[in-house]
Amino acid sequence: MADKQKLLFVTGNKNKLAEMQALLGDHFQLDSISIDLPELQGSSNEIAREKCKKAAEFAKGPVYVEDTGLGFGALNGLPGPYIKWFLESIGLEGLVKMLEGYTDKSAVAYCTIAYTTGPGSEPILFEGSVKGSIVNPMGPRTFGWDPIFKPDRHNDTYATMDPAVKNAISHRSVAVLKLRQYLEKELELRRSLAVME
Ligand SMILES: O=c1[nH]c(=O)c2ncn([C@@H]3O[C@H](COP(=O)(O)OP(=O)(O)OP(=O)(O)O)[C@@H](O)[C@H]3O)c2[nH]1
Ligand SMILES: [Mg+2]
C-alpha cells in the first residue's frame, strides 16, 4: 500500500489534536507541532487565515490550523471566536448564566480549517458548523464547552455522547471531511500529471 500523505497540524490544544487524529489518522500521517499561535481579533475566517500564515512561516512548509467558535443566537453570534477567553474567565456555569435572561438558548458550534502549501501561499478555508443549544453542564469536563453544547436532534451534549458519535456529527468532522476531499483530489491530480510526464 502507498505511504500515507503527510499532514502537519499546528495547534496548542491536545483535545483538538486527539479528535483530528481520530478523524484523519486512517487517511493521512498526521504530524503536529504544539504552538499557541497569536490570534488577531476578527471573524473566525480571518483568525484562521492569519494563524495559518504564521504557522507556515514557522514550519516553512505545508500546514493546517483550525479555529473553533461557539456563537449564541441571543447574542448575535457572540462569544464566537472569543469563546476561549469567556470560558477561561467565567467557566461553563458563567456561559450558561449569560443566557439566563433569554428564552433563545440556540447556539452554533463551528470550525474553520485553514490549509496552506507553504509560506507566501494564500490559505484555503474549509468550514463546518453544527446547530444546537446551550444547556446546564452534563458529562465530563474534558474538552472546552463540550458539556454545555447539545446538538439539535440529540439528547446528549457533546460531552455525554460517545466520542465516536461526536466525531461523526461534529463541526470539526464537517470541516475535516472537506479538507480531506480537497487533499485527496489534489493528490490524484498530481499523480495523473506525474503519469503524463
Ligand atoms: O467543547 C469543545 N468542543 C470542541 O470541539 C472544541 N474545539 C475547541 N474548543 C475550545 O474552544 C476554544 C477555541 O479556541 P481556539 O480555536 O483558538 O483553540 P485553542 O487556542 O485551544 O487551540 P489552537 O488555536 O492552538 O488550535 C478553546 O477554548 C478550545 O478548548 C472546543 N470545546
Ligand atoms: Mg487558539
Automatic annotation (TrEMBL):
Enzyme Commission number(s) from the entry: 3.6.1.66
Role summary: Pyrophosphatase that hydrolyzes non-canonical purine nucleotides such as inosine triphosphate (ITP), deoxyinosine triphosphate (dITP) or xanthosine 5'-triphosphate (XTP) to their respective monophosphate derivatives. The enzyme does not distinguish between the deoxy- and ribose forms. Probably excludes non-canonical purines from RNA and DNA precursor pools, thus preventing their incorporation into RNA and DNA and avoiding chromosomal lesions. Pyrophosphatase that hydrolyzes the non-canonical purine nucleotides inosine triphosphate (ITP), deoxyinosine triphosphate (dITP) as well as 2'-deoxy-N-6-hydroxylaminopurine triphosphate (dHAPTP) and xanthosine 5'-triphosphate (XTP) to their respective monophosphate derivatives. The enzyme does not distinguish between the deoxy- and ribose forms. Probably excludes non-canonical purines from RNA and DNA precursor pools, thus preventing their incorporation into RNA and DNA and avoiding chromosomal lesions.
Binding site for Mg(2+): E39, D67
Residues binding ITP: 11-16, 51, 67-68, 143-146, 166, 171-172
Main localization (coarse): cytoplasm
Keywords, in A-Z order: Cytoplasm, Hydrolase, Magnesium, Manganese, Metal-binding, Nucleotide metabolism, Nucleotide-binding, Nucleus
Source species, domain of life: Eukaryota
NCBIfam families, sorted: RdgB/HAM1 family non-canonical purine NTP pyrophosphatase
Any one of the GO CC terms: nucleus
Subcellular location field: Cytoplasm; Nucleus
Cofactor note: Binds 1 divalent metal cation per subunit; can use either Mg(2+) or Mn(2+).
Protein name, entry field: Inosine triphosphate pyrophosphatase
Cofactors (names): Mg(2+); Mn(2+)
SUPFAM superfamilies: ITPase-like
A single MF term (Gene Ontology): metal ion binding
Swiss-Prot/TrEMBL catalytic activity: dITP + H2O = dIMP + diphosphate + H(+); XTP + H2O = XMP + diphosphate + H(+); N(6)-hydroxy-dATP + H2O = N(6)-hydroxy-dAMP + diphosphate + H(+); ITP + H2O = IMP + diphosphate + H(+)
Any GO BP annotation: deoxyribonucleoside triphosphate catabolic process
Oligomeric form and interacting partners: Homodimer.
Similarity remark: Belongs to the HAM1 NTPase family.
Membrane spanning stretches: none
